[in-house]
Amino acid sequence: MKAVIAENYGGPEVFTIQNVAIPIPKSNEILIKIGATSVTRASGMMREGKPYFGRLFTGLTKPKSKTPGTDLAGVVTAIGASVTSFQVGDKVMAETGLNYGAYAEFICLPEDDLIIHQPENISPEEATGILDGASTALAFFTDQVKIKKGDKVLINGASGGIGTAAIQLAKNFGADVTAVCSSKNKALVKDIGADKVFDYTKKEFENSSDLFDVIFDTVGTLSYAKSKRNLKENGVYMTPVLSMSILLKMLFISPFSQKKLKFDATGMRKKELQMRDLIQIGKLLTANKLKTVIDKVYSLDQVQAAHTYVDTGRKRGNVILINV
């Protein structure tokens, strides 16, 4: 089978396509023929091995797992002797986390891993495209804060993978959502539910006096210190993007302030919490309450081009790799 291999950290050029043996499922595993996987901003950071302290989990000098990819959608083609939850032919969607392995034609996963049946009303591209963004946003909206009806929520980086999922999830919770994006993406974010839009190229948020219960900075480009003035009393600034500045403020400033700063590496939470969110995402997709925004689709052979595009920071929604 074809698989993307990365022997070292670096730019998209570290990826090569190699032929490797199709894995054989163990007794408790299922073999999945991967139809689609996604390329996220986090994928690029993992490829580069940044931030550097993340290498404690991914490999100090080179990747522990040579085949990247943290989410997928596909079809079960074989099952181990003790598997009871899945059958050959089942359509599934799954998250592999730091075990990686989704940039390939096949993968073996334990049946009790982060796997659910793919809703029948969506494609493999839609299934894998929503996983990273929706899982991240849902974790913040349920574990870090409790979004409720009438809350005012601002989402920065609203046209990206996490942002487009966050808008829809916040609206499902009944929140009033303000999106921050470029002018070219205003129509997109309004179409998926944003009540108001700030154009970051015109510094509309920085010049606003609006107050929010939650500021969710999905891309790490807002300053907590400057954003505090736009938080209500007991408001929360949240981000999935960790930096040394964020870490220091979270440790030494946020505990003494009514306006909190929260970070979470959502993919490293307890498995039962991740599974809870995955099941909820599946239900929302089935009910057509969550829509995957897809920007570009590449073949697995075009993985370098896909990562090069995502590295520009201009993607709208999600970028997908498919096996053809």
Overall description:
By secondary structure, the chain is an alpha/beta fold. The protein has two domains: 2-122 and 292-322, Alpha-Beta Complex (Quinone Oxidoreductase, Chain A, domain 1), CATH 3.90.180.10; 133-267, Rossmann fold (3-Layer(aba) Sandwich). It is built from nine helices and 15 strands. It has helices spanning 41-48, 55-58, 124-144, 161-172, 186-191, 224-227, 244-252, 271-286, 303-311, and strands at 2-6, 15-19, 29-39, 71-79, 91-95, 106-110, 114-117, 152-156, 176-181, 196-199, 212-217, 231-239, 260-263, 294-299, 318-322. Helix 3 (124-144) crosses helix 4 (161-172) and helix 3 packs across helix 8 (271-286).
User: By CATH's scheme, which homologous superfamily of the largest domain applies?
Assistant: Medium-chain alcohol dehydrogenases, catalytic domain
Secondary-structure element order, N to C: EEEHHEEEEHEHEHEEHEHEHEHE
Rg over CA atoms: 20 Å
CATH top-level class of the largest domain: Alpha Beta
CATH fold label of the largest domain: Quinone Oxidoreductase, Chain A, domain 1
Q: How far do the termini sit from each other?
A: 12 Å
Strand content: 25-35%
**Biggest sheet layout:** 7 strands, mixed
